[in-house]
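Quick log. Single chain, no ligands specified.
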Amino acid sequence: MQVDAFSNRVMAIKPRLYRIALLYLGNESMAKDTVDEAEYRAYISLKKLRQPEYFETWLTRILINECKKAMHRAKREVAYEAIPEPAAENFDALPLKEAIGKLPHELREVIILRYFSGYSVVETAQSLDIPQGTVATRQRRALQLLRLELSDA
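-> predicted structure:
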């Protein structure tokens, strides 16, 4: 894949990647940094991509790994001062975001990819490297937990 083709494909899916990172991390600046880091890692590893038709899934997997690294780094950091970030929308105030944040990590991954990124069950399974049946089970369990959480609110 040429540099121009890589750049065009990344730019086409960058909003989706940003949404995934924002939902994982809950912080705009961390999400932007993580998307940029994932893009960089993908560019460096471009020769390892065996099937170009799975470019989006491959890049999403890289992004998920980078989000996990960022969350791990954030746990080790001590915040000196909470600096409020201006929200582009009132998404932070939504009860749904809080409910999704309370889900176990493996259930949250499936919900983010399926409902906020528009991935199919097959694409989600490929991105998370798990069987399709596991995706369906986790999705069903996550939706049950979200219904319980949101019905209490």
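The chain has two domains: 1-84, 86-153.
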